[in-house]
Each structure stands twice: as C-alpha cells, then as structure tokens.
Amino acid sequence: MSFRRGVVRQSKFRHVFAQAWKAEHCIDDVRVSRVTWDSPLCAVSPKFIAVIIEAGGGGAFLVVPISKSGRIDQSCPTVCGHAAPVLDIQWSPHDDSIIASASEDCTVKVWQIPDGGLTSPMTEAIVTLEGHSKRVGILAWHPTAFNILLTAGCDNVICVWNVGTGELVYQLSDAHPDLIYSVSWNKDGSAVCTVCKDKALRVIDPRRGTVREKVHDGTRPMRAVFLTDGKILTTGFSRMSERQLALWDTKDLSEPMAVQEMDTSNGVLLPFYDPDTNMVYLCGKGDCTIRYFEVTDESPYVHFLSLYSSKEPQRGAGFLSKRAVDVNKCEIARFYKLHERKVEPISMTVPRKDDVLNELLAEMKALRAVVLAQSQRIELLERQLARIEDGDV
C-alpha cells in the first residue's frame, strides 16, 4: 500500500475557532464509566445529554436536559435497566427523546425520555432487542428510515431491527471473521461500511453483496465513517503504530485517495463528521486535543485545518446535532468533552467577517496605545538622560 501525505492549503474554514465554555456552564460530579470499550461514552440530542456512568450491579447512563449545568447530585435518577455495563448509546435522529443503549448483557434496549427529563430511575425500556449471543457494543440508527436500528456485537454479527415492532429484519452473520470495530450508514441508508479486526474495510450493500479491502496495517482498533459524497474516511494505525487518517473511494478500494499520518499515541481516533461543512473532527481517547480537517474534491482531498488543545485528556465526547447549535453566535459545531468527573462543552465557531474586522481594529487600536505610551516613556527617559549629561541633576 502506498501512502500519499496531505498538504496544508487555504480553506474557507481556516478561521474555525474552538472555545471551551466557562466552568459554571459545565456539568460536574459525573462518574464517567471506566469501561474499556472504545465508544464515545456520550450522546447528545437537541434536548438531552446522555453519559454512560459507573454503576454497581449493572449498567446505567445519565440523562439530563441540555440546558443543565453545575453539580450532579448522587441521587440523580438514571436509566438503569441493563444487567451489565452499557457500552454504547445513540439518540434517534428522528425523535430527540428516543435513545438506544447496547450492553454487555447481550441486549439492546430503547428508551423514551420524558420531555422534562427523568424524575425517577428508569428501568423499563419501551422495547428490548434480543438476538446477539455476546455483548453488544455498536449502535447505528438508519439516517432516513424511521425506527430502523443497526446493532453489532462481539459475536461478529450485524442485526437490523424494526424498533417499532421489535422484529429482526436483516442479519449478517458470515461477513466478519473477527471483532467488528465500527459501522456507518451511507447518506441515504442504502449501504453500510464496517471495519473489522481482520484489518479490512467492507462496504455492505444487501443488493450487491460485500466489497472488501485491507485498509490500515496496524493491529489496534480502526474507525470508518461514510461521507456525503459516498467516500469513506477511516482512522487507524500503521505498522509502526502511527495514527492515520485515510480517505477511500468506494469505486476502487485498492488504494486510498489520501493518507495523513499524525503521531504515535495509543488512543483510538473517534471521527465525527459534519456533512454540512464536510469537516471531520478527530477526538482521540486519552488525548488533550481535537483535530479538525476539511474534505474536498481537489487533491490532496483531506486538508488539516487546526486543533483544539487543553490540559485535560478526554475520556470520550458527544457531538451535538447541527439542529441545536447557536447560529446567533456563529456556532457550526459543539462537543461535550468527558473528563473523569466532568462534562465540558466546547464550541466551534466561524466568526463573521465584520466580527473578524472589529477584532483586528480593536487589536490595532490597543497596539497603537501601547506604542504611543512607549514613545512617551522613551521621550521622558531621553530628557532625563540629557539633564544628567548636562550636569543639571
């Protein structure tokens, strides 16, 4: 496999600024789960924030209104109907109050959260899906069909369910010889892409069969996400354990269109894709940074824009639906970064030209004031020096 390294170019999104919210707007005392499964551990809808938490005697996740801030009381009610730790949670794209959860107890449960949030512990799901023989760690709602949910488990089986009736409508049990790392629907839901422990990227179209190709050479977990134009972006590791980002054309998976190598950290890179801006945000588990890239039709196709850096590593992250960002503040994306005991919102904004111009003018004005003050100070010192030389002092 030959790799082509991307280069930096001028982008219409080169002025994307990341800003963490103030401490009073964070959610504190959240006991984020220590489960070793590589999921984001957080899901955000326009109404609620859900976080998988530590729970004794089973699995649970916290659900609070998106406007919530401050300390979470230890008696705060949770969704706690699983018999083993929860591994993944996903909000329905068609109903902001419906959330699915996957667990080590081999089941998937679907919950309906009351509009005002939980007032008591929720133990009864509206539907329980039982079809996997081992723990279930991947959930993916269909992007266009209502009530269709895909699940993948450690039994290497993919199931597609009709949540409305609770029936299994499609099962793929012989395509993956090993652990499935991630699954992503394409834009219209006509196909899915998967990456597996056998280092293969698969494009699965029920009408055309499976297309398979080797992607990253490293042995550590990979991730894949379908882009709007049908291309696939993957994250993984090289043979030398360097973290990589690669772009693939589904018409020819024999070689990547572009590859960028980043660093040698061990954390799995979780990709979050924004179809409106064609930007991809990479959050590495255990990293202190969030990198963002723009994907275009021109070579080298994947363009590094910038990164957000902080002092605290992230345990996971939730990506807010575009329907809920604050456009009045020029917000194009928002993350909810998980610390060990805190949830911290981070806004991605693109200031208007007027805002940028005003900032530049204000900075120029401040610099002029500094220069003027320094000039006056120099003149004063020169007069004092002249007086000393003339013997007046």
UniProtKB/TrEMBL annotation:
Domain DUF1899: 5-70
WD repeat locations: 79-121, 129-171
SUPFAM superfamilies xrefs: WD40 repeat-like
Annotated keywords: Coiled coil, Repeat, WD repeat
Keyword Chloroplast: no
One GO BP annotation of this record: actin filament organization
Matching SMART domains: DUF1899, DUF1900, WD40
An MF annotation (GO) of this entry: actin filament binding
Domain of life per record: Eukaryota
The keyword Repeat belongs to this UniProt entry's keyword annotation: yes
Stored PROSITE patterns: WD_REPEATS_1, WD_REPEATS_2, WD_REPEATS_REGION
Family the entry assigns: Belongs to the WD repeat coronin family.
Protein's name according to its UniProt entry: Coronin
Species the sequence originates in: Seriola dumerili (Greater amberjack)
The organism's taxonomic lineage, starting at the top: Eukaryota, Metazoa, Chordata, Craniata, Vertebrata
